[in-house]
Amino acid sequence: MGKSINCPAVFRYQRDQAEACIKSDIRYSRGTSPEKMCQQLNDKFGAFCQTTFQPYQDFEKPHFVASDDPFVKTLLSVYEKQTGQAGATVISAGANYGRFFKNGVGYGPAFPDSLDTAHAIDESVSLAELEKSLAIYAEAIYELTK
């Protein structure tokens, strides 16, 4: 699933205390765990600092669906039929709605030659890409429910 991502988000330090705290948003790869990462950090930096894992309410384990899953194969097949281009799976570092379902995945719209404006101030899609996406979604729904 690629590299783990660590985004230090909160840093707390008070001059009169002997410790500081850094809280991080970590998106970690399949095959590791928060406990394993803490142990690796403590093995390397234990003389300087201690790392602890504190689960919180929104903690989520990595979500992964293999590209040979029948559901994913159907989605790729529809994409290929509708676009004439080879479909490919992509591993995302971000979270998406697919994680709410056992074999759920994020599914488009993103086309190879399109300008990616996702989450940008000017987030947009062309009408031609919107029409193409709707055709893909309609056929995907048909294929998955027939």
Your description of this structure?
The chain is α+β, with helices and mostly antiparallel strands. The chain has 2 domains: 1-62, no CATH class; 70-145. The chain is 31% helix and 12% strand. The chain has a two-stranded antiparallel sheet. It is elongated.
What is the count of structural domains? 2
- Catalogue the unreliable spans: none
SSE order, as H and E? EEHHH
| SSE-based structural type | alpha+beta
Radius of gyration: 21 Å
Spatial order of strands in the largest sheet: 1-2
The mean pLDDT is 82
Tell me the major beta sheet.
2 strands, antiparallel
Helix content: 25-40%
What is the approximate shape?
elongated
β content, as a range?
5-15%
- How many helix segments? 3
Q: Termini, distance in Å?
A: 31 Å
